[in-house]
């Protein structure tokens, strides 16, 4: 049975992102109210807000944690065209008693000329590296050469994607067989450049990032993108939140020893789910890449799982308040998965209460939502 | 903006772990955030209801873990006919663990005041009942794989074990004032017969016979029939065919009694006779006593076809289920699973159980056992081992969510050859390092399995955390364990800075006992040696102290920022009689180097002039003494 605990977030405006830290004991939220809040989970499972501060002069789109090896570090990005790095300072003893901690700004990254739409730390084996992407289509990769000094960051790479970027994801694989790889998603309405997902790969020889692949079949706006944990496999798995949920498999093709260009990939679509029947805003993997969660404009969260035959199907539906969706089925609609099998709807007599399991889905129209949402950036006339 | 539906859903799946199965449901901490139009935003954190993590279920996980590990270590080289009894015994162990858990839960369900909790426990009990039922059947059919003859006996045991209410009813009847007049008397007798417990039926009937003078002969006849029913004895010298012949004779005799209407005047005895002859319609009239179609199946086989072969089971199972169940009601999941078992379709059983129960504990352990019995390989070797590993990985992943059960999961991962290691690596680095003790536990697991990257990472995280909280000693020992030279250098510098400001060292024990670990970084080595210098000085071993100081400066491991301090330390040494008089060379050596150092120091901007003056004075005096000494002592 699922239990949903509600926390009054106290943000004065829309919350745009929520991020767990590495161990799942801390959480950060960011909002259009320009602030970031940090929440800590106590021993009894209660969440307390231990910090809340103004971070930007515009809506904060994303917030993300660095690996705890680098300390307690957060990065945020905003409509105000900047990204910032924050570090937690161990406070005075009376602060500790009140359960409050302080975060100070270590640096502001001001290179972007437009809204910064995503910020992500690179995998830790690459050092302390931060990546941003902007509405003007530029992906920037920064590095802090001295991990003890978070005030010094140098811009190492600028990648021009030619399309307005909405999200980025690093391939977490630390295998030596895989050069650093980043996927960039775009929500650009431009139809000339068809593919809205680009994959860039680092080249040891040129010491630059070069485009390795464009997913031409993704032509609609992409809102979120996530590489799955690698598990020592030779291929990569990428989940995309667009008008539906898509899972791609990227199989590196054998390189000629003389080839100096980026890896060529065979792109396979593993699954495609349109159950949300609306725009999908977020996708997120669990740590073993066995479970994918997606959230959409239908107000639901769906959980996707593959069986041992690698067939993906929906394994649970939660409503926006975290409670399971009862009385609805998880049956995929007409456009079912490429290799997926139909969802079991049996209410087992063995299971007693069936909360959190698959039920029958009642079809309903997606909520009226204009295409221009706060998430799609139109260049405003003023700043 | 107002037209916008303000429901923005941001999802962040906890990187923690995959669904954990407590009472066989998924545990999934998911943070879902929504902003409502009214302006007050809410965050919803979803997780599995942890109240179900009852200590009783935890015992199930712990004990089954023990059995699992034992099973993995059975030697592969034994011939399979020696292994079968072992596997059966292991299967029985699992089942007894399930039963024990079930009984405890039942007790708690009955005794609790909380109605909701009682329902929860009740649900868990019924799930466990079903699991044990399925497991038991799988043991009989797949693991023990009993041949015809014994098969029916095992199935009878199976049915009897899962129909405990007969004994309860019997007790009630026997404890009443007049058992034969109890309204449940005949139900008990019939139930005994239906379960093939003919001895007990006879004993019950004897009570009736004692009081029925009129039908005395009928009761005698029935008793005779009941006593003569042949029961297959697997150990006997008679073959199955011989048993079959005997049984047919008996069956004909019973049939004759029916035809002769020997029991016609006693409706109860007539009924029993019809049952003994295996009359389906009679059996079906007693659905409430049978209560399940599989009881009906076994009873029917007992009295119509006791030499049933395993391969014939599915046909009878199908027809019995069809006859027993209402044509209106569809078979439930449990029925399909049992049917698949009677069909010897192991994969279907596993698949249906996985889906229906969403219970990784059960399918993982059962599949693992079946795999050891080499029963999954008949389809496809690769396929079979994949399935076992898949289920074990799912189960163990779920265990990692629990604050103490995660340690059990490690053993499961250890026995998954393909992905076990990488799963363990991914899970273990996410275990929250709440306390040093927990961190050390995690480290031990990583070190035992040669996971250097995870060891390094965990130590680094702990070191960083300690440093943030100004626990330098802890930070140092963690960074040494992480073999992180850069961090060790940083912390050593902090120690030295502390010394400069406070004049004392902290964490002396640690620094003194580092041993060869001090060589991790130059700065660390300097720190240790410098402290040693102070100790020697404090113990008035001035010569040794001087020698050490000299080597510190010579070896160039002293940081530039520290030279002033060192020279200041050198000052009193230069004054010491012991040094200047007995070891003039030492003194001269010190002199040489201090001159060089002072010279260098002039290049630094923040030198204290008074100190330099003192030094120059001391050096001059010392030099004078030394020269005099050198001159007077004969080399």
UniProtKB/TrEMBL annotation, chain A:
- List the record's Gene Ontology CC terms alphabetically: kinetochore; lysosomal membrane; nuclear pore outer ring; Seh1-associated complex
Annotated InterPro entries:
Sec13/Seh1_fam, WD40/YVTN_repeat-like_dom_sf, WD40_PAC1, WD40_repeat_dom_sf, WD40_rpt
GO BP annotations listed:
cell division; cellular response to amino acid starvation; chromosome segregation; positive regulation of TORC1 signaling; protein transport
Enumerate the SMART domains for this protein: WD40 (SM00320)
Q: Which GO terms describe its molecular function?
A: structural molecule activity
Subcellular location, principal: nucleus
Q: Cite the entry's keywords alphabetically.
A: Cell cycle, Cell division, Centromere, Chromosome partition, Kinetochore, Lysosome, Mitosis, mRNA transport, Nuclear pore complex, Nucleus, Protein transport, Repeat, Translocation, Transport, WD repeat
**WD repeat ranges, renumbered to this chain:** 8-40, 273-305
What the entry lists under Gene3D superfamilies is as follows: YVTN repeat-like/Quinoprotein amine dehydrogenase
One of the Pfam families matching this protein, by short name: WD40
Q: Where in the cell is it found?
A: Chromosome, Centromere, Kinetochore; Lysosome membrane; Nucleus, Nuclear pore complex
**Entry keyword S-adenosyl-L-methionine:** no
PANTHER family with a match to the protein in the record? NUCLEAR PORE COMPLEX PROTEIN SEC13 / SEH1 FAMILY MEMBER (PTHR11024), NUCLEOPORIN SEH1 (PTHR11024:SF3)
What family classification does the UniProt entry report for this protein? Belongs to the WD repeat SEC13 family.
Q: What does this protein do?
A: Component of the Nup107-160 subcomplex of the nuclear pore complex (NPC). The Nup107-160 subcomplex is required for the assembly of a functional NPC. The Nup107-160 subcomplex is also required for normal kinetochore microtubule attachment, mitotic progression and chromosome segregation. This subunit plays a role in recruitment of the Nup107-160 subcomplex to the kinetochore.
Output this protein's name: SEH1-like (S. cerevisiae)
**Gene name tied to this protein:** SEH1L
UniProtKB/TrEMBL annotation, chain B:
Q: Which UniProt keywords apply?
A: Membrane, mRNA transport, Nuclear pore complex, Nucleus, Protein transport, Translocation, Transport
Any signal peptide, and if so, which residues? Answer: none
Task: Supply one GO CC term from the record.
Answer: nuclear pore outer ring
GO:BP terms for this protein? mRNA export from nucleus; positive regulation of DNA-templated transcription; protein import into nucleus
Instruction: Give the transmembrane ranges.
Output: none
| Compartments it resides in | Nucleus, Nuclear pore complex
Q: What molecular function terms (GO) are annotated for this protein?
A: structural constituent of nuclear pore
Q: Does the keyword Nucleus apply?
A: yes
Q: Which domain of life is it from?
A: Eukaryota
Name the family.
Belongs to the nucleoporin Nup85 family.
Q: Quaternary arrangement and interactors, per the entry?
A: Component of the nuclear pore complex (NPC).
Q: What does this protein do?
A: Functions as a component of the nuclear pore complex (NPC).
**Identification of the protein by name:** Nuclear pore complex protein Nup85
Give the originating organism. Answer: Myripristis murdjan (pinecone soldierfish)
Supply the source organism's classification: Eukaryota, Metazoa, Chordata, Craniata, Vertebrata
């Amino acid at each position: 049975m699922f239990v949903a605990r509600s926390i009054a977030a106290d943000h004065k405006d829309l919350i745009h992102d929520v991020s767990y830290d590495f161990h799942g004991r801390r959480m950060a939220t960011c909002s259009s109210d320009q602030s970031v809040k940090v929440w800590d989970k106590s021993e009894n499972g209660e969440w307390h807000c231990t910090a809340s501060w103004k971070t930007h002069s515009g809506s904060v789109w994303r917030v993300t944690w660095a690996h705890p090896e680098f300390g307690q570090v957060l990065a945020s990005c905003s409509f105000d065209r900047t990204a910032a790095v924050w570090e937690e300072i161990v406070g005075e003893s009376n602060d500790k008693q009140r359960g409050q901690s302080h975060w100070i700004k270590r640096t502001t990254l001001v290179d972007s000329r437009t809204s910064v739409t995503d910020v992500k730390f690179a995998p830790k084996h690459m050092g302390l590296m931060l990546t941003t992407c902007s509405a003007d289509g530029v992906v920037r990769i920064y590095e802090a050469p001295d991990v003890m000094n978070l005030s010094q960051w140098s811009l190492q790479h600028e990648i021009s994607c030619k399309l307005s970027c909405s999200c980025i994801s690093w391939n977490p694989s630390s295998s030596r067989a895989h050069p650093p790889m980043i996927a960039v998603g775009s929500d650009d309405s431009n139809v000339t450049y068809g593919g809205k997902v680009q994959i860039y790969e680092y080249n040891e020889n040129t010491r630059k990032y070069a485009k390795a692949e464009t997913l031409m079949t993704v032509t609609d706006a992409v809102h979120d993108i996530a590489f799955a944990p690698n598990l020592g496999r030779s291929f990569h798995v990428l989940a995309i939140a667009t008008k539906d949920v898509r899972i791609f498999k990227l199989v590196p093709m054998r390189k000629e020893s003389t080839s100096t260009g980026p890896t060529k990939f065979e792109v396979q679509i593993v699954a495609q789910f349109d159950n949300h029947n609306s725009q999908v805003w977020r996708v997120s993997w669990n740590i073993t890449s066995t479970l994918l969660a997606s959230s959409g404009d239908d107000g639901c969260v769906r959980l996707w799982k593959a069986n041992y035959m690698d067939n993906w199907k929906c394994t649970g539906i939660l409503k926006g308040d975290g409670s399971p969706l009862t009385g609805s089925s998880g049956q995929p609609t007409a456009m079912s998965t490429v290799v997926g099998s139909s969802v079991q709807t049996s209410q087992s007599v063995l299971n007693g209460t069936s909360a959190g399991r698959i039920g029958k889905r009642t079809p309903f129209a997606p909520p009226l939502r204009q295409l221009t949402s706060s998430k799609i950036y139109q260049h405003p006339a003023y700043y | 903006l107002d037209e916008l539906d303000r429901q923005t859903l941001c999802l962040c799946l906890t990187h923690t772990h995959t669904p954990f199965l407590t009472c066989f449901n998924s545990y999934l901490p998911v943070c879902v955030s929504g902003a409502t139009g009214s302006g007050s935003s809410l965050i919803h954190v979803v997780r599995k209801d942890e109240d179900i993590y009852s200590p009783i279920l935890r015992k199930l996980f712990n004990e089954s873990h023990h059995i699992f590990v034992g099973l993995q270590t059975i030697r592969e080289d034994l011939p399979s006919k020696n292994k079968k009894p072992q596997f059966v015994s292991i299967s029985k162990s699992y089942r007894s663990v399930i039963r024990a858990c079930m009984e405890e839960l039942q007790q708690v369900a009955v005794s609790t005041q909380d109605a909701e909790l009682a329902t929860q426990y009740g649900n868990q009990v019924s799930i466990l009942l079903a699991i044990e039922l399925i497991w038991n059947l799988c043991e009989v059919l797949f693991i023990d794989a009993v041949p015809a003859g014994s098969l029916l006996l095992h199935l009878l045991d199976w049915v009897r074990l899962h129909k405990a209410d007969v004994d309860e009813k019997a007790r009630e009847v026997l404890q009443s004032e007049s058992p034969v007049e109890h309204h449940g008397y005949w139900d008990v007798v019939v139930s005994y017969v239906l379960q093939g417990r003919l001895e007990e039926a006879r004993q019950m009937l004897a009570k009736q016979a004692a009081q029925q003078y009129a039908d005395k002969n009928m009761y005698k006849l029935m008793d005779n029939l009941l006593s003569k029913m042949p029961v297959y004895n697997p150990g006997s010298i008679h073959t199955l065919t011989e048993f079959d012949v005997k049984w047919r004779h008996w069956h004909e005799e019973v049939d004759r009694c029916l035809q002769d209407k020997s029991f016609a005047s006693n409706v109860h005895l007539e009924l029993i006779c019809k049952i003994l002859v295996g009359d389906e319609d009679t059996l079906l009239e007693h659905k409430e006593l049978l209560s399940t179609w599989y009881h009906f199946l076994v009873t029917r086989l007992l009295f119509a076809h006791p030499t049933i072969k395993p391969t014939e089971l599915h046909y009878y199972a199908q027809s019995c289920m069809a006859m027993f169940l209402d044509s209106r009601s569809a078979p439930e999941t449990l029925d399909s699973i049992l049917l698949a078992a009677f069909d010897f379709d192991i994969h279907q059983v596993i698949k249906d159980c996985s889906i229906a129960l969403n219970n990784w504990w059960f399918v993982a352990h059962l599949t693992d056992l079946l795999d050891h019995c080499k029963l999954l390989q008949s389809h496809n070797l690769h396929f079979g081992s994949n399935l076992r590993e898949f289920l074990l990985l799912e189960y163990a992943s779920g265990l990692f969510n629990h604050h103490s059960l995660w340690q059990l999961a490690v053993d499961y991962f250890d026995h998954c050859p393909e992905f076990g290691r990488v799963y363990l690596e991914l899970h273990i680095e996410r275990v929250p390092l709440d306390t040093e003790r927990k961190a050390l536990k995690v480290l031990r697991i990583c070190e035992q399995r040669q996971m250097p990257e995870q060891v390094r990472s965990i130590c680094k995280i702990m070191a960083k955390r300690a440093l943030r909280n100004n626990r330098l000693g802890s930070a140092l020992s963690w960074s040494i364990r992480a073999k992180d030279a850069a961090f060790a250098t940083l912390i050593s510098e902090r120690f030295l800075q502390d010394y400069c400001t406070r004049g004392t060292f902290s964490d002396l024990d640690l620094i003194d006992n580092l041993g060869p670990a001090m060589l991790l970084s130059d700065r660390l080595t300097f720190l240790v040696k410098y402290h040693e210098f102070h100790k020697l000085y404090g113990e008035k071993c001035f010569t040794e102290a001087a020698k050490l100081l000299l080597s510190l400066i010579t070896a160039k491991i002293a940081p530039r920022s520290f030279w002033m301090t060192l020279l200041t330390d050198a000052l009193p040494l230069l004054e010491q009689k012991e040094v200047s008089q007995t070891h003039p060379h030492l003194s001269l050596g010190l002199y040489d180097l201090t001159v060089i150092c002072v010279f260098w120091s002039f290049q630094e901007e923040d030198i204290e002039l008074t100190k330099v003056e003192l030094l120059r004075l001391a050096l001059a005096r010392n030099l004078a003494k030394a020269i005099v000494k050198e001159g007077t002592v004969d080399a």
